[in-house]
């Protein structure tokens, strides 16, 4: 198997307890327990453009946080009326742990 470095950055996003509390308010009939969640299958990964440094990545994320949160919240509720009123960076940081990976390797030869 050959490995290929690709010119992309990865954003790895995992729910925090505050997100689960919100979900339990929206869907009280199906409560979730954060402690019981499978921590190995709860992350979302987004491929971003390649940036010069982490500050540029954060600027990009903050400028596009409403779109990012929309995609993430759609995974919990398709009804936008259920979502928090303000989709901003503060909400993102309250609802999600995240980390940025600047080295992305593809293990498939296809485009």
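Q: What amino acid sequence fits the structure above?
A:
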């Amino acid at each position: 198997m050959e490995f290929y470095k690709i010119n992309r950055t990865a954003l790895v996003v995992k729910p925090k307890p505050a997100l689960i509390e919100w979900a339990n308010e929206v869907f009280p009939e199906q409560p979730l327990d954060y402690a019981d969640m499978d921590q190995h299958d709860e992350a979302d990964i987004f491929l971003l453009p390649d940036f010069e440094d982490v500050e540029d990545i954060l600027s990009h994320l903050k400028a596009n946080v409403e779109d990012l949160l929309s995609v993430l919240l759609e995974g919990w509720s398709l009804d936008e009326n259920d979502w928090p009123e303000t989709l901003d960076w503060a909400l993102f940081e309250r609802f999600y742990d995240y980390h940025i990976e600047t080295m992305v390797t593809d293990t498939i030869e296809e485009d």
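Q: And what stands out in the fold?
A: The radius of gyration is 16 Å.
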